[in-house]
Amino acid sequence: MMLSQFLNHFGYIVTVFLMVTGLFIVIARGNLIKKLVGLSVFQTSVYLLYIIPGKLLGGTAPILSAQYSVYSNPLPHVLILTAIVVGVATMALGLALAVRIREAYGSIEEDDITDLDNQADEREGNVA
Amino acid sequence: MNLTQHLPALQVIVPLMSAPLAVLLRHGGLAFGLVTAGAWLAFANALALWFQVDASGTISYHLGSWPPPWGIEYRIDRLSSFVLLLVSGMAAIVLLWGRASVAREIPRNVHYLYYAMFGLCLTGLLGITITGDAFNIFVFLEVSSLSTYVLIALGRDRRALAASYRYLIMGSIGATFIVIGIGFLYLTTGTLNLADMAIRLRDVQSSRPVLAALAFLTVGISLKLALFPLHQWLPNAYTYAPSAVTAFLAATATKVAVYVLIRFYFTVFGESLIFDKLPLPKIMLGLSLLAMFAASFIAIFQDNLKRLFAYSSVGQIGYITLGLSFDSVSGLTASIVHLFNHGLAKGAIFLLIGAMVLGLTKGGATPPAPSFDRLNGLAKRMPLTCLGIVVAGLSLIGVPGTVGFISKWYLILAAMEKGQFWLVGAIVLSSLLAVAYVWRFVEVAYFRTPPAQSEAHEPPLSTLIPAWLLVLATLWFGFDTSFTVGTASDAAQQLIRVLP
Fold it and tell me: Cβ of B301 under 8 Å from any chain A Cβ?
């Protein structure tokens, strides 16, 4: 019973696993590139969330034909194509920023950058 | 072809087209002209739409003539037209103001990219406001967010890069949370059209996916809203971004996020689920009070003037969400009014600070950061600028005669309606914190002697006139409230009436 329930919802379990893994990487890793990887994993889980329910049991490809009456939903795929493009753009922008930060700070570790910023703030007399 | 029929589509298309054209032209001056013309056309368009909604009620525009719920629908009601006016108006003013500031703060070879990104940001914000489709909101949200990250990274200080990266990570998490929420809503209702979703949600309202959708949407939008404690990206982003970018973002970005929250809460989920069945009012009340007190308190101790007013923004957003937590027409009216009024006041303040840093040095030198040690006795060197900041600051405090007073008045009215008089005391007390941080500026600028060799002078007139226009607007709308309060109360009644 448990195994069949698990297998029925396997897709959703993978989705949640990826979601939590991605968020954990973003929070727990200090390297800027690794943070972006975590963000990408997190966004990928959302693609699964949309696409899995799109397939209807016994549904065929969404091409109209007289022989078939149940079609899988094509709309989630369209939405996810958009979301993938957004994810790619975000990743590209994040990596470009990481390159610029490396040039400006000499490091892509968040701890080093925060330390350098705090030193600069203290020199200027800023309060955090 | 009747142009007025297609005004809703043109509202988004005109600034959208100006952006790639600016990139193709590769010339800073031409890009400025193109994008500014696009922004002013968008403002005229928003005015036309406001009059149309005023005359004939909600506009429903079907993109590509596909009827909803299959096609994407642009739906403009009272609240949308109000926010459209704010966003396009602020863009138009900030672009005109920014000529002198951009010339000195941003390297000349990327000016055309700056204007292109500004055009995209404006497109995104206008698109979020005007659309009636849930996924469309996400797409435009990402358009505006990505261009915002680029705009912030254009700041001179290298900390702008770190601020932009941090905002990118947090903002993308927020946007993905919003997508997850929309995904659950799509799964349970089968539609993406907001109005259709509202009808279909009535059957499945208390089911777990819908509640999960509400939770994800609330957290995601609150991150974009900079609701305490999800505000961590805001102070650094506002401080290190170029002056024009800070002014535009402070006046519009968080306000559009509030609009999305109101749209989802009242139009899609419905008042009865949000406020009667869930403890959301209490949560929102707690977080709003935290924002009002903690952020305003932290603002008092800042050394950089931009950072001070950035924390002030976080506090003022607490007032907006406080109005939402009341679940009454007067509370919602207060929120919508403060949305507009705060946009005006903060826009004015950041424009004046941008002008001030221009006036701190002579010639074409890069403007320095407005830290308090550079501001000693500034009022003697640039009297108009400092007076403008003080007048707009009075609006943050809520002195009668300014727009801030109008918002706080309606908040207090809503609190008294609910019989919660301790809340009236809390609102007044937090205004005293605003007095503290505005007084810090007054004390340094007016009551200290300027250093003998300071080069400070009044900034160029091209920056003072648009900024003072906004300052005078904060005074005007503080006395003649028919436009702001009238529209806000109409919008509130429209939203709360649409409950299942």
Answer: yes
ipTM: 0.94
Helices (DSSP H) in B78-207: which residue ranges?
Answer: 78-105, 111-130, 134-153, 159-189, 194-201
Task: Provide Rg for chain A, Cα atoms.
Answer: 22
- Could you write out the DSSP letters of every residue in B347-391? HHHHHHHHHHHHHHS-TTPPPPP-BGGG-TTHHHH-HHHHHHHHH
Helices (H), B448-498: 461-479, 482-497
| Dist. CA B2–CA B21, nearest whole Å | 25
Does B500 score more than 50 pLDDT? Answer: no
- Confidence at B1, pLDDT banded by 50, 70, 90: low
Cα B308 from chain centre: 17
pLDDT (average), residues A59-64 = 88
Return the residue matching tokens 């009075």: B394
β-bridge pairing B73-76 and B59-62? antiparallel
Q: Which of residues 72-91 of A touch B (CB under 8 A)?
A: 76, 79, 82-83, 86, 89-90
Helix (H, G, I), strand (E, B) or coil at B74: strand
From A42, A117, A124, residue closest to B162, measured CB to CB:
A117
Distances B286 to B84, B282, B291, B304, B338 between C-alpha atoms, Å: 30, 6, 9, 28, 19
Confidence of residue B73 (pLDDT cuts 50, 70, 90): very high
Could you report the per-residue pLDDT of B314-348, keeping only the tens digit for each?
999 999 999 999 888 899 999 999 999 999 999 99
Following CA atoms B372, B376, B380, B384 in sequence, which dihedral angle do they give, to the nearest 10 degrees?
0
pLDDT at B499: 45
Alpha-carbon distance of B448 to B48, in angstroms, equals 49
Q: How far is B153 from chain A (nearest CA, A)?
A: 8
More confident residue, B125 or A2: B125
| Rg from Cα positions in chain B | 22
Considering only CA atoms, which of A71, A107, A8, A127 is closest in space to residue B304? A127
Two tokens, residue A88: 């790619």
The tens digit of pLDDT for each residue in B141-155 reads 999 999 999 999 999
Q: B159 vs A117: CB contact, 8 Å cut-off?
A: yes
Residue A126 has a pLDDT of 55
First to last CA, chain A: 55
Q: Can you give the pTM of this predicted structure? A: 0.94
**How many C-beta atoms surround the C-beta of residue A66 within 10 A?**
5
How many alpha carbons fall within 13 Å on the CB side of residue A108? 18
DSSP code per residue over B237-275: HHHHS-HHHHHHHHHHHHHHHHHHHHIIIIIII-HIIII
User: Do residues B464 and B359 lie in contact, with contact meaning Cβ atoms separated by under 8 Å?
Assistant: no
For residue B169, give the nearest of A26, A104, A117 by CB distance: A26
